[in-house]
Structure formats: structure tokens, C-alpha cells
Amino acid sequence: MEVYWAIAVRSFRRFSTYRIATLSGAFTNTVFGFIFCGVYLTLWHTRPGLGGYDVSDALTFVWLQQGLLAPVGIFGATTTVELGERVRTGEIAVDLYRPTHLMLWWLSVDAGRAVFQLLARGGAPLIVGALVFDLNFPSSPMQWLAVAVAVALGILVSFGIRYLVALSGFWITDSRGVESMALVLSLFFSGAILPLVVFPGWIGEVARATPWAATLQVPIDVWLGRNPGGVGSALAFQLVWIVVLGLAGRMATVLATRKVVIQGG
Amino acid sequence: MSVIQLENVSRAFTVTSRTGLRRTKREVRAVDNLSFTVGRGEVVGYIGPNGAGKSTTIKMLTGILVPSGGSIRVAGVDPSRNRMKLAKRIGVVFGQRTTLWWDLPLKDSFAVLQKMYGVSRARHAENLATFVELLDLGDLLDVPVRQLSLGQRMRGDIAAALLHDPEIVYLDEPTIGLDIISKARLREFLAQVNKDRQTTIILTTHDLDDIEALCSRVMVIDHGHKVYDGTLTGLRSSQSAPRTLVVDLAASLPPITIDGATVTKVDGPRQYLTFPTTTSAAPLVAQIAATYPLQDLTIAEPTIESVIARIYANPAPVTD
Amino acid sequence: MAESTSLRRAMAWPGQYRMLVMMWIRSSLAYPASFALTLVSTMLITGTDFVAVVLMFSHIESFGGFSLGEMGLLYGTASMTLGLADLATGSIERIGQRIRTGELDVWLIRPVPAFIQAVADNFALRRLGRPFQAGLVLVIALGHIELDWTVAKGIVLVVSMLTGSIIFGAIFVLGAAFQFISIDSAELANSFTYGGQQLTQYPLSIFGKDIVRAVTFIVPLAFVNYYPVLFVLGKPAPLGLPSWIGLLAPAVAVAMIALASVAWRGGLRRYRSTGS
């Protein structure tokens, strides 16, 4: 276990050296936050209570979303993009011969990144948003705890998806296409372009059942206290996806290892 | 006729260092009051330790960097003011990074350079044929640059730098990381180009064999100052590094005693004696032959590495 | 004399740009299947924004006084102009990276302006995905708008696509010029380019008067598409501005070119005198 901790710490340190990039990223998130606030104010002004959110829920959604985009890795993350690159170039063979589990190794790398970006980029837009608008905050220690768990689980789900996408390069020659399709799905179904509660009819129902919903929409709803079935079922929903993606990831790792061992890469 | 002229050229950088919250600015002179001229067709080795000011000089000669003082003329123009005009008349090879397009086949890079430099099709074809043959590039033309080995890429880069018939070529560490055979081939090629086209070559390198093989003249720079400018032979004698006399005697003897030389090593019948460059070898040889059963003898010049190391250790600015 | 040589040099720029761009196009078309796939996914990725607008309209009839068709026109023009600017100049946003790897030095030793090489660098034809998608939205939107078309309105719409692209292009260049001062700030420019596109796809009046003032007088994003579209749709301009303010877009574009050119030259001069 120590080795994974060390990897995560090293990854955290690596990302903490990108100071200006982190700062510009937080600035961009803040600018987009204001744009979305203007849009959602108009939308919720026209249709108060849309999707079960009141105006301050909608605005809080915006700032949480902007803070979580990078840590959760909605647009993909440097770490899993590098993993995909290693698969494409064949350098992955080196990783497979290490006496560590491939998935845990990269999970540790991603965790270090996520924790740094959560600390450095997660809070900044929220603070700016809270200074300008009237936002909702969790009201009890229990709810804070639930938020922390939901965010952590959201990052795990996101990693599970990104890991599978990166490993697809073992079987698909042009895995960049898979990466872009994954980006489309992630943007659309995570709540990054519009809260999933606003998605109408069956589209909404499908969207809210996807693993992408578990990455962004669910943690934000835990913060807002707006999960349709309560916090317990929301966390259970995330856990189900973690188990499914974890098993799929493990299977993909085994198959990939066999492929490399037998075919030599 | 000189193609490069530098007069009292300086380049200072402001270095900001931060200690806690306090920022201190300090001026560093990467090149300080540097003057030299290079004639057409010369091959000059430009050497010095890391950070001595070599790259800064090359950047000023190509016009990338504007000097903070002094004047530069390259091929009759001020490089920093006529950078793009000068570009067509010079070629540059950066050993550490390629000037070729990473994702494109080698031949595509060459085709783009032909148009970029406005080289006539006929001349381009002629040059390309020559370089493909001399540098053995035939099999590499269709390979994307990123897939080339270091040596192959360097050959491609050198061809790219020469395709537009530049009058002056700057080569920055062209043999770094290459194997012995590639190095030898490259040196041979450069010597050929210099001979056939009267191309002026400025070569910065850490590999002193490059200099021995190619350069009629060496300039040594240290801390932004020129500390030597002359021939390689002159460089050796300038530092009075000791020479070595290797003496083969008829039998194994205890260390011999000679005025003006000392034995540093005995290896059976062979003895090694060192003596200063300022002393002539002839009287020593006569002395030995008169006293001991001398069978054979050779004089070893100091290695260039040892000479350069001595220059860096105690720089003595030369007067032109 | 000097004037005529610099003019002659400037005349060569389009040819030099085309030559470099053609080289990249040829290399991207070497794998047509892979190219088609990335083109389609670029269309989908950039199209999700408009899908969000369509989804919103399942709950509302008009947004800030704009119908869905009119929103399509705003979105289409915003996305088209950003897409074209990104296609033509977007590569320049990687200048910080190019400085760090020393590639800028390589550009500077060539007889083609560094600017031309920087905007043509790694020219990605797949970026056509955004203009394609925007064009599609525009065509559908124009079919849904009831409007008395006049020649003047048609000209304003077409010209505004060009001037809007130029304004966005200038912002890309300004962002790149800033990287000469702060090498890691690439993402900062995104606030103004991608953020600008996000902003201008909505009726700007919903963001309040301060924002409208800021994007009119400070960062003139309102001239990219908002004012020209207001003119075409015959809607009044905000802040009591005259309705013909949209006709000033070409003048704004020229001013932005001048500003971007000064900034780029300044950045390059700084690089060439500090070596960093």
C-alpha cells in the first residue's frame, strides 16, 4: 500500500508545480461561472422551480460544477490521457511488468492529481460565486461528510471510465476517436452543459442513470440536498457504478496483460 | 574577406531571484565585449563550458537575439535588423532539437523548405540528390521524423540546413549522442561541403575530436569572454601543458635521470618522462642517447582535453 | 524604398501561410478514416452547447426575448466565427510551449515571419468540425425565422461572420502575445475565446448592463455577432445605443487587428531582447 501512497503524493507534488496554469484554469472556471449564472438566472426567472431547483440551487450548481470540472476530469485528465498515450506508443509494457497493479498504480496517480486540483481549483470559483450571489451551503456536519464522500466517489467513477477509455487503445487502433466520443458523452450526461434535472422526459431519465451522472450531477445534488431518493440512494448509485467499472477495469487489465505477454506488445 | 564581424558585442540578461517575498534583480553578462572576425570558407570551432555564452553568441549571429551592446555584421548585414533577409543566407542546426517537422516524412520537410527558402526546383533537386547520396538518406525520405534515430535525424537536419546553399552554417553540437561511425561520416560530409562550396562553418561542440577533424581555427569562450583564438596547435602550446617523452630502452632499468625532464612512469623497459612545452625535445633526446641504451622514442603531445581543462582552470585573456 | 520592400514581403504572407497549411492538410488526409472520425467527434463536442439550448426550450418559449430560431442564429454566428478563428489562428495558443521547447528559435531562423509559422503550426483540419456544425445550425435556424430579408441584412450577416472571425482571431493572438510575459498562461486566453463564444451565443442583454458595457467598450465581443444579429432581426440595441451599431463591426475588427499586431510584435521583441 505504501507504494501507492508514495505515487499519489508524487503526483500531487507534480501538479502543484503548475502554478500559473492552475491559476489561469481557476480564472477561466470563474468566467464561465458568471456566464452560466446569467443564463440560469434567465431560465429560472422564466420557469421558477424548474427541475426541482430554486434560483439559488441553480446558481450554486454553476459554481460547484465549475469547481469540480477539473478535479473530476469531465474533459479528461492529464493523467489518464498520458496513460492512453502510453498504450498507443507501447510504453505501457514497462508498467505491466512492474510488481504493482496497473489500475491501482494509475488510480493513485489520478488521485494525487484530483486532490490537488480539488484543493487549488475547486474552492476558488465557489468563493467568488458566494461573494456575488446568494448560494446554498450544506447545513449539517453529516451533510458535509456526505458531500465529501460523494465527491470522492464521483472522482472514482470518472477514473473508472477514463481508465477503460485509455485501455481501449490495446484493441482499437485509433483510440483517439474513442477518447473524443467519451468526451461527448461526459459533457452531455454529467451535467456539464446543463443540469440533468432540466433534461426533459426519457432523455432525462436515461441521462440520470448513466455513470456520467454519478461523476458530477450526483455530488452536486448531495450538496444541494436535492437527490430524488435521498443521499443514501445517491451514494449507493455511485457505488454500483464503481463496482461495475472496477470489475470491467480489472478484466480489461487482465486481458491487456495477457495480450502484451503473449504478443509482446 | 570576412563574412562575420563582431565588435565589442555584449549581451546582458536580467536574472530575477526570489528569496522569500523579496525579489532581487541582478544583471548577468552572458557575452561580454566579444570581438572577432571569421573569413569566408573558414571552419571555426567555438568551444567553452556550459553557460559560457556559446548559444547566446550563435543566437545573436542568427539575429534571434538582439545584442545589448556592440555591433555585428553577418554577410554584410546587421542580423537582428535583417533577420529574415539573412535567414536565406545562413543555415542552422540545433543538435538538441530538430528543425524538421516531427510528424511529417523527411521528404515533406525538404519540400516545404524548398518553397520556404525560394530555392529553384532544379537546384533543390540537385542538392537533394547530393545530400541523399553523401548522407545516405535514401531509405529515410518516407519515414516520419519522429521515427528516425538520433543519428538519422541529425543527418536529415544537416541536409535541411544546407538545401538552400547557405553561405554560413552554424552547427550547435551536431555530433551529440551519435555513435563513432555516424560521427566520422558526418565530419567527412562537413569537410566535403566546406571544400566544395566554400561554406563558412561555425561549430560549437563538446566533442574535441570534431574540432581536430574539421577546424582550422578554434575560439574558446568562458564567462562571456574570448580566452583563446587561434590554431589547434597554438592552443596546445599556449597553455604550456607538459609534453611526454616515451623512451624504450634495451633493458628494464630504474628510473633514469635527465636534466629538464622527470620520469612519471616505468613500464618494464619503457619509461615515460614529462617536460614543459617551452623546452625543446632535441637536447633531451641527445642526453638520453648518450647515457642510456636507447632503442626507440616517441613524443606525445598533450591531449586537447587537458589543454582546454587548463584554460578553464586559469583563464588568461588573450590580446589580439 | 523600405516601404515597398515591406509591402512586397507582406504580399508573400498569404502564399507562405497556404504552403504551410497545405502541408498539414496533406498529412492529416493521409489517414482519411481517422480524419473523418475526429471531424465528426469535433462536430459533436462543439455541438453539445446548442443541444443544451434546445433542451432549455423544452421548458420555455423564448429566452431573453429570443425564439429558438433566433437563438440558433446567435449560436450559429458565435460558433461559426470562433470556429473559423480557431481554424486559422488557434494554433498560436501553444506559443508558450513552443518557447519552452525552443521551437520558436527554429521559426526565427527561417525566412518566413514567426507569426505565419505560429498560426500555421500543426494546422488541424479537424477544427472544421465547429464551423460545419455551426453552419448546419445556421441553415436550420434561418429556416425557422420569420424575417423580411433585404440585401443589406444579408450583407451585414455575411460580413459579420468575417469580422467576427477576425475579432476572435485577434483575441487568440493577444492571448498568445501575453504568453511572452507569462509562459504558462495559455488557458487564460480561453476565458476570452471559448468563454467569449459561450457568452455571445446568448442575447447579451440577459447578463446585465455592466457586462454589455464591458463587451462593447473593453473587450468588443458584442461586435462579433450580437449587434449585427440585432440589426438583422430588427431588434433594438441595449444601453440606448443606436440600432446601426452593428454596422461598426468592420471598424472594430480593424482596430483589433492593429492591437493584436502591436501586442504580438511587442511580445516577440521582448523575447528577442531577453531570450526568454
Main attributes?
heterotrimer, B: 320 residues, alpha/beta, Rossmann fold, 3 domains, four-stranded antiparallel beta sheet, 33% helix, C: 276 residues, mainly alpha, 0% strand
Task: Please tell me about this protein's structure.
The complex is a heterotrimer of chains A (265), B (320) and C (276). Chain A has helices at 2-16, 19-46, 55-72, 78-89, 92-96, 102-132, 141-167, 175-189, 201-209, 217-224, 230-263. With 265 residues, chain A is mainly α. The radius of gyration of chain A is 19 Å and the shape is globular. Chain A has one domain. Chain B has 320 residues and is an alpha/beta fold. In chain B, 33% of the residues lie in helices and 31% in strands. The longest helix of chain B has 18 residues, at 180-197. The model of chain B has no long low-confidence stretch (mean pLDDT 85). Chain C has one domain (2-274). Chain C is built from 13 helices and no strands. The two termini of chain C are 34 Å apart. In chain C, 48% of the residues are buried. The chains are: A mainly alpha (265), B alpha/beta (320), C mainly alpha (276). Chains in contact: A-C, B-C. Chains A and C meet through helix 2 and helix 8 of A and helix 2, helix 9 and helix 10 of C.
**Beta fraction of the residues of chain A?**
under 5%
Tell me how many strands of chain A there are.
0
* SSE topology string of chain B: EEEHEHEHHHEHEHEEHEEEHEH
Main sheet: strands, sense, barrel of chain A: none
Kindly report the name of the CATH homologous superfamily of the largest domain in chain B: P-loop containing nucleotide triphosphate hydrolases
- Beta-strand fraction estimate of chain B: 25-35%
* Biggest sheet character of chain B: 6 strands, mixed
Question: Termini separation of chain B (Å)?
Answer: 18 Å
Task: Give me the oligomer status.
Answer: heterotrimer
The shape of chain B, in one word, is globular
The CATH class of the largest domain in chain B is identified as Alpha Beta
- The first-to-last residue Cα distance of chain A is 28 Å
Find the CATH topology of the largest domain in chain B.
Rossmann fold
- Strand order, largest beta sheet of chain B: 5-6-7-3-8-9
Structurally, the number of domains of chain A stands at 1
